[in-house]
Inverse folding.
């Protein structure tokens, strides 16, 4: 007979919601980040629960804001997708040398299999490269518990902690029990620590040594931290696994012995050695790069890993079964599904039809509009990373023969422009190509692809309250761009086509803002009673 | 108790995620262990989407392995063939063809109608849990009509 459990503390939450819930329950004072699948819902849920959550223009700024909060003694969490940590890598590496007072948690949501990303980089490498402790939950309960543990570790050793999630942890729901978590030991208060926080070389040299001492202490602690669980089973197969891979493996080999690693950096070497000595066959099951297996082997422990073919894409129960069976034969290819496309009546459609008809060379960027690369448009020729459209467009202009160079357009969305397009405009003004350049901002008034988040150009905060608003056309004029146009290509396609043709022929620096709200966002914006581009929108004094 | 695995498939925007949320919530209310898995982002723009729901005494992987789904619910007939391999031998396929048009009282409720058909094959989840789950995941304005559709289909299928 099934038992009905109705206690309030039992919740069905996604991994992202569980991280937010733990942050809220532990008194985290500030959550900051930039939207990116699969990380976005962490801050949204933190805000929903009543936490102070903010979208930053990009991940670098988000992490810097969180570092400042932690310097002030507040608990802070910075959230981002895996490639976002590349943007935030500069402060990430530096803060490792610096003592934080309040807990500083950096959440990296990795996307193995690239459900919605341009690469499947494995951010466990960042933990080792920067010297930042790494925690890896495998479900929502662990996401909750390890967020709390990350706070404890961060405050005990005054060190930032990397909480690495993956898509199937972020966007899987499972049951959690909410707990009463330890609250911050004291209220924020500024205490001067110039030697500890000003990373001039004379201080940074000491900072590096201090970091290694802390990591040694944490490594010793991790041997008995309770974070790495030995699940006894048949000793003929011992599986060492972390994160979601451990869940797949427990289903694939229910009788095997397991060592589940929740804190993989610093690695609990002696715990692993002892486990390996107790089993006949020691196999490391991990998603992504052979990171764990290499670290274990580097410690002089002989373990078996996976065939190279399993580095690519996500793992699942079937693939783990193949790894256990040492089966490296070609895998069945799942039938291709229907590709995503622009919504019917999406304002991007008119833009990409025009770009296609004018045979433009389009340096693209990240957002819904990347779908312009697919049929029937096929009018997007490159896309590298957030904000790269402007730089790559300028590079093309600098080297191509004039008749081709004059066809180059950089296309970037409004949220992506705020994220990292502004420095591209600065470059354009500073190093203008001989043929000029045309930058097209597709301003649909939202961060559409990740689920309609606000950004500094919408004039609304994460929780949709009025705030300061950055106007891209004003910014461009201040930067000294000669020609700035605001237009709605959907309303008048011919006028847009003519404007674009003239701009390409002008040999000047041109910024065109194609402005029309995303249809999905427009409905929400109407509900909030605020037009994204009305002049009555409040400005910061 | 064996883990039950259900895959819900369709195109982005058809209500695949909502259907999965309701099923998971109903299993959760029943007191079972539950895991779901879904993808967000790029795939949400009209492309093929699937959502996995698994429940039982203890669920490990949130993803349904190929050939092991007990039930496959497909919201869009064009998506049946590409998803069929996930279904186990003897598994239940639920498609819009099963729905009597007169039961579909609202044109955007195919997902709920199909959940009504699915519910007949999941004896572990009782009717009140389904209704409570729909109230939790549907906006107030559309709750009653959808519950009515769910019950019509649940009871009409022989």
């Amino acid at each position: 007979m099934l038992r009905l459990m109705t206690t309030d503390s039992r919740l069905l939450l996604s991994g992202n919601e569980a991280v937010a819930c733990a942050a809220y329950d532990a008194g985290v004072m500030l959550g900051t980040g930039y939207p990116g699948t699969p990380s976005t819902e962490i801050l949204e849920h933190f805000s929903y629960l009543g936490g102070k959550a903010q979208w930053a223009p990009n991940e670098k700024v988000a992490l810097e804001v969180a570092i400042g909060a932690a310097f002030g003694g507040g608990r802070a969490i910075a959230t981002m997708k895996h490639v976002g940590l590349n943007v935030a890598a500069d402060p990430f590496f530096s803060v490792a040398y610096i003592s934080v007072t309040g807990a500083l948690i950096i959440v990296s949501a990795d996307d193995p299999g690239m459900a919605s990303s341009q690469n499947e980089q494995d951010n466990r490498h960042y933990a080792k490269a920067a010297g930042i402790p790494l925690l890896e939950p495998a479900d929502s309960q662990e996401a909750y518990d390890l967020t709390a543990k990350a706070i404890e570790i961060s405050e005990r050793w005054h060190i930032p902690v990397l909480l690495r999630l993956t898509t199937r942890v972020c966007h899987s729901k499972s049951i959690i029990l909410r707990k009463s978590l330890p609250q911050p030991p004291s209220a924020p208060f500024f205490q001067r620590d110039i030697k500890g926080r000003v990373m001039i070389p004379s201080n940074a040299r000491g900072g590096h040594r201090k970091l290694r001492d802390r990591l040694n202490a944490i490594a010793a602690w991790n041997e008995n931290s309770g974070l790495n669980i030995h699940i006894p089973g048949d000793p003929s197969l011992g599986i060492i696994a972390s994160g979601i891979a451990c869940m797949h493996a427990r289903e694939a080999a229910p009788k095997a012995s397991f060592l589940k690693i929740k804190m993989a950096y610093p690695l609990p070497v002696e715990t692993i050695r002892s486990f390996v000595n107790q089993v006949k066959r020691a196999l490391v099951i991990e998603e992504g790069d052979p990171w764990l297996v290499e670290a274990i082997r580097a410690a002089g422990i002989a373990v078996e890993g996976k065939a190279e073919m399993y580095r690519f894409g996500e793992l699942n129960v079937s693939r783990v079964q193949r790894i256990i069976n040492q089966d490296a034969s070609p895998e069945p290819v799942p039938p291709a599904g229907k590709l995503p496309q622009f919504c019917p009546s999406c304002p991007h459609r008119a833009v990409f039809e025009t770009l296609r008809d004018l045979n433009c060379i389009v340096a693209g960027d990240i957002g819904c509009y990347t779908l312009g690369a697919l049929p029937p448009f096929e009018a997007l020729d490159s896309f590298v990373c957030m904000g790269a459209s402007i730089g790559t467009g300028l590079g093309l202009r600098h080297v191509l023969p004039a008749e081709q160079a004059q066809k180059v357009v950089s296309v970037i969305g409004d949220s992506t422009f705020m994220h990292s397009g502004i420095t591209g405009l600065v470059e354009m003004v500073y190093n203008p190509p001989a043929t000029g350049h045309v930058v097209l901002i597709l301003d649909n008034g939202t961060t559409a692809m990740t689920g309609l988040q606000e950004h500094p150009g919408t004039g609304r905060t994460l929780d949709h309250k009025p705030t300061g608003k950055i106007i891209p056309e004003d910014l461009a004029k201040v930067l000294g761009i000669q020609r700035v146009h605001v237009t709605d290509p959907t309303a008048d396609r011919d006028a847009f086509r003519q404007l674009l043709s003239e701009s390409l022929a002008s040999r000047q620096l041109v910024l065109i803002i194609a402005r029309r709200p995303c249809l999905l966002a427009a409905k929400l914006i109407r509900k909030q009673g605020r037009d994204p581009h009305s002049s009555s929108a409040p400005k910061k004094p | 108790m064996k883990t039950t695995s259900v895959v819900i498939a369709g195109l982005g925007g058809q209500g695949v995620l909502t259907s999965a949320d309701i099923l998971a919530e109903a299993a959760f209310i029943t007191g079972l262990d539950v895991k779901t898995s879904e993808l967000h982002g790029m795939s949400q723009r009209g492309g093929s989407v699937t959502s996995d729901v698994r429940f039982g005494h203890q669920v490990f992987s949130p993803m349904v392995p190929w050939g092991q789904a007990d039930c496959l619910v497909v919201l869009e007939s064009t998506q049946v063939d590409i998803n069929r391999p996930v279904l186990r031998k003897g598994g239940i396929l639920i498609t819009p063809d099963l729905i009597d048009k007169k039961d579909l009282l609202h044109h955007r409720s195919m997902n709920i109608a199909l959940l009504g058909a699915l519910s007949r094959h999941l004896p572990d989840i009782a009717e009140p849990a389904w209704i409570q789950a729909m109230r939790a995941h549907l906006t107030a304005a559309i709750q009653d009509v959808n519950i009515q559709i769910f019950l019509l289909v649940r009871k009409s299928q022989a």
User: Anything to note?
Assistant: Chain A has three domains: 10-222, 228-324, 348-527. Chain A has a mean pLDDT of 94. The first helix of chain A runs from residue 15 to 25. The first strand of chain A starts at residue 10 and ends at 14.
